[in-house]
Amino acid sequence: MSSLDAGLADEATIARYEPVIGLEVHVQLKTKTKIFSHSSHAFGNAPNTQTDPVVLGLPGALPVLNREAVSLAVRASLAINCQVNRYSQFARKNYFYPDLPKGYQISQYDHPLAEHGWLDIQAGELAKRIGITRLHMEEDAGKTIHDGFPDSHRYSYVDLNRAGAPLCEIVSEPDLRSADEAVAYLSELKLLMQFARASDCDMEKGQLRCDANVSVRLRGSDKFGTRCEIKNLNSFRFVKQAIQYEIARQAALLEAGGTVVQETRLFNTSTGTTAGMRGKEDSHDYRYFPEPDLPPLIVEDEWLDAIRDEIPELPPAMRKRFVEAYGLSEYDAKVLTLTAATAAYFEAAAKAAGNPKIASNWVQGELMGALNAAGTAIEDSPVGAAELGELVALVNEGTLSGKLGKEVFAKMFESGKTAPEIIEAEGLRQISDTGELDKIISEVLARSERQVQQYRGGKTGVIGYFVGQVMKATRGQANPKLVNQMLRAALDG
Ligand code: ADP
Ligand code: MG
Fold this sequence. Notes:
It contains 17 helices and 16 strands. It has about 500 residues and is of the alpha+beta class. Helix 4 runs antiparallel to helix 5 (about 235-255), helix 7 (about 315-325) crosses helix 8 (about 330-335) and helix 10 crosses helix 11. The mean pLDDT is about 95. The longest helix has 20 residues, at about 235-255. A hairpin with a 4-residue loop joins strand 13 and strand 14 (about 275-280). The structure holds adenosine-5'-diphosphate and magnesium ion. Adenosine-5'-diphosphate binds near residues 171 and 213.
């Protein structure tokens, strides 16, 4: 039975099969120049303006390994707990396609840069360690463009700006068991690469791309099924959709008595389906051999140690520290470590506020709300971390009510002024002076005889009415907690 016949399995059928997934992730290293030559690999420039003799594969041009690319690949390796091999070697992977003028891609094969790593994921309630087989370096290919031109029905176009961009390919063990686990793995990997400053992983610019290997087996079986490899998924949503589709397709096929054919498949982003592209190539199809134009790559201990020292604190350690040192919830710790800039902002705000938990609420609530609404990155926040911390402290010590605090924050965000400047200019200080409040409370009670009687008759809920009247009389500046206490004392006494 061919792979097209059986359609998609229903949920009950899918539930009887266990998915097995391994990801091959390509991460673009953030160097200025290409891996073996001097041209830039910046995104978005006019086609074919970033080429050179090496990229074009001109006769006599020789590759020279970019030291910075190695350094970033080592950082990436350390961030995912890999052992870095002192000796690794580049290899030619031969294939013919217009995006690769040389006729071969320089990659690594039997001596990769790094091996035996892992990262921890959290998928729902489940915490799990995912093995990483290897990390190897390679060059990116160019881009073939099949549509968007008036003559696209006859021709494809080639843009080599990206050809030769430095990549590391990170191959996981087949340890993932659902589409959600695959997405959790990918987002943690992305975070680690960003924090280690190996890559920006901007998926819209193709800086992180993923091939998903998917097979299914009957639950309880200890033998892996035959896998398909879905190529070039460039968003988390597509990774999830493609894997889910593939699981349902393979389950239906096996259920109908068919077999899965090992092949390379393409995901169609408009239909959410996968379709066979070519039979899976074996490694011998590529006629790998050691790259004769490059010497072996030796990473000396000293260099390795120096790179290790450059790696800042990474999200797993940071989350743990935020929970232990600041008493934050796991959830808050996760949100505040989504980018290095967010984490740094939070820590500075917490220090200025003198209260990490309340600072965390303000960063996640008011600040992120305002930044999202304005489409501004936290790096460009008009309210600095120390200034937000100062505002939080003013609210915390009762100089401003929570409500006034939010108003002041909005004005800070709009004007870039500090909280004290705004409070001073607008006379917004919270009234916590009991003498002043006593006077206002007496006036309010004097003109609310009916409500006073109601309260004393047992309808204590009318307290809200009195508080409202006092707040109105003070244009919202009275300390509400104090007003409440004083009202009760006056009414009960
Ligand atoms: P290749 O080099 O041919 O792509 P690899 O053995 O390097 O093959 O494996 C590639 C990826 O496929 C790895 O991420 C691995 O975990 C995954 N993988 C291997 N076997 C299976 C399987 N039966 N089901 C799902 N994924 C698998
Ligand atoms: Mg592969």
